[in-house]
Write a structure and sequence with these properties.
Layout lengths: L10 H13 L1 H12 L2 E4 L7 E4 L2 H8 L6 E2 L8 H4 L9 H11 L6 H18 L8 E2 H18 L5 H16 L23 H26 L6 H7 L10 H32 L1 H13 L6 H4 L3 H13 L9 E3 L3 E3 L2 E3 L4 E3 L2 H5 L15 H4 L20 H16 L2 E5 L8 E3 L2 E3 L5 E6 L6
Parallel strand pairs: 2-8
Antiparallel strand pairs: 1-2, 3-5, 4-12, 5-8, 6-7, 9-12, 10-11
Helix pairs in contact: 1-2, 6-7, 6-17, 7-11, 8-9, 9-11, 11-12, 11-14, 11-17
Length: 452
């Protein structure tokens, strides 16, 4: 079959579409879906067509295709500005397999249980500073929690000069290209010009270089301290591939940057959205509080994260507003047929997570927040895919969900949170991810019987 094709666009029309995708990405992509359906092509005039597939059968074919059918790293090069050229996110083929295997151990098995106390203690410390009846931007707190968790897990740092330097630099780098306007640097090549330290892109590059140097210094410190550490960095220094080779310092530095970005920015946004929905829908709050109350005397943190309704709340949060709109781009390397459509080398296949999560036939009333969906049925990995899929599925997904559940359980065991009224809350672009607005404000109420 011939691929669906939209009308040819003038240069001005293409530019306007790009700007809309930057400033209103969800409405832009929903318009395409409404107009063309499950499978559609964008950038009609381009020699490298982008084909969107949000049909579960098509997604299954893409995610389960032979590994040499697609590559991803070269078309996701925009991420290099965040994470460096050696990041797992930018690798393909054998190198991707090698890096993925080396990076898996810190995020699975018995290691997960070790993070429980860390997450609980950091969350308790942050929320202990909240003031009763004093409104505050909730995302600032979720950012602080997620940032402290990832810095402690990765570097073993939770205070001191080294921690503060990393915190400030990482925040500066992320904030410099986090707003919709500053995000334009990531979409237009001509804006990425270094005109010196006072130019926006030049300032970003210099802050990024400072951060790189600081992380390399942490790697050298970890090497000197040897076996006296128990953090992810020390595990990466010890990791060896099948040939017995270790990762270079540059490789480790870029993988650490990837963890800091993926483990901080995404989790902070997901937590803020969860807190929004829990208060927005009274029945959700009531059901969650009842489940947590029945479990209040159990200190088994792993068991807490397996509570069914808490899990459903987190799943629905990541369904309705997935932090990343699309799974990793797949560049066709050899001809493949997807649902009757022939894709040739050079074409780009895109799996839109957001559109798939909003299909009426899979999720009735998709705009409504209904955790019960996940208690009533199990969705396939081609219907529900907040962490992507196939060989590109996020390796930190288990850690992210573990942290998300434990943070929420800790918060609601100590406080009641309420949204301030008359706020317009909708997703906004924050660099390459979607997030709640930074000025979304909440207020804390002391729980009955709490001594906090």
């Amino acid at each position: 079959m011939t691929l669906p094709n939209g009308p040819a666009l003038s240069p001005l029309q293409r530019t306007l579409r790009t700007w809309k995708f930057i400033f209103s990405p969800l409405s832009a992509i929903e318009e395409r879906y409404s107009e063309y359906g499950d499978i559609f092509r964008t950038n009609t005039n381009s020699l490298v067509p982008f084909i969107y597939f949000c049909n579960p059968k098509a997604i299954q074919q893409i995610f389960t295709a032979d590994p040499d059918t697609f590559t991803s790293g070269d078309k996701n090069g925009i991420l290099q500005y965040y994470v460096g050229k050696n990041s797992l996110l930018l690798q393909d083929g054998d190198r991707h397999k090698r890096q993925r295997k080396l990076l898996m151990p810190p995020f699975h098995g018995s290691r997960m249980t070790r993070y429980g106390d860390l997450i609980y203690n950091i969350t308790s410390n942050v929320i202990s500073q909240w003031k009763i009846d004093k409104p505050f931007p909730i995302r600032r707190s979720t950012q602080e929690i997620s940032f402290k968790v990832i810095l402690s897990a990765v570097f073993g740092l939770d205070q001191g000069k080294r921690y503060e330097k990393l915190r400030v630099l990482m925040s500066d780098v992320l904030e410099s290209i986090s707003s919709p306007l500053s995000s334009t640097f990531l979409f237009f090549n001509f804006l990425r010009k270094d005109w010196g330290p006072w130019s926006p892109w030049g300032r970003f590059l210099r802050k990024r270089q400072e951060l790189h140097e600081l992380i390399l210094a942490e790697i050298k410190t970890a090497k000197k301290e040897g076996n006296h550490r128990d953090d992810i960095l020390s595990l990466l220094l010890e990791a060896r591939d099948e040939a017995g080779n270790a990762m270079s310092e540059e490789e480790i530095k870029d993988e650490l940057l990837t963890m800091l970005l993926a483990g901080h920015e995404t989790t902070a946004s997901a937590l803020a959205w969860a807190l929004y929905w829990i208060d927005k829908i009274p029945s959700v709050r009531e059901n969650l509080m009842a489940e947590l109350a029945a479990f209040s005397n159990n200190s088994d943190q792993v068991a807490i994260t397996k509570l069914p309704y808490l899990s459903a709340v987190c799943q629905e949060t990541l369904r309705i507003y997935p932090i990343v709109m699309n799974a990793f781009l797949r560049v066709v390397q050899k001809p493949i047929e997807i649902m009757g459509y022939q894709l040739e080398p050079g074409m780009v296949a895109i799996v839109p997570i957001y559109l798939t999560h909003h299909r009426e036939d899979i999720y009735p009333e998709p705009k409504k927040f209904k955790p019960e969906r996940f208690l009533e049925r199990q969705f396939s990995p081609y219907e529900y895919l907040p962490f992507g899929g196939g060989s590109r599925r996020c390796i930190g997904s288990a850690f992210a969900l573990f942290e998300m559940k434990l943070v929420l359980a800790t918060i609601f065991s100590q406080w009641e949170l309420k949204l301030l009224p008359n706020q317009r809350i909708r997703p906004v672009r924050r660099g390459l991810v979607m997030a709640p607005p930074g000025n979304m404000r909440m207020v804390v109420k002391q729980k009955i019987g709490s001594e906090s």
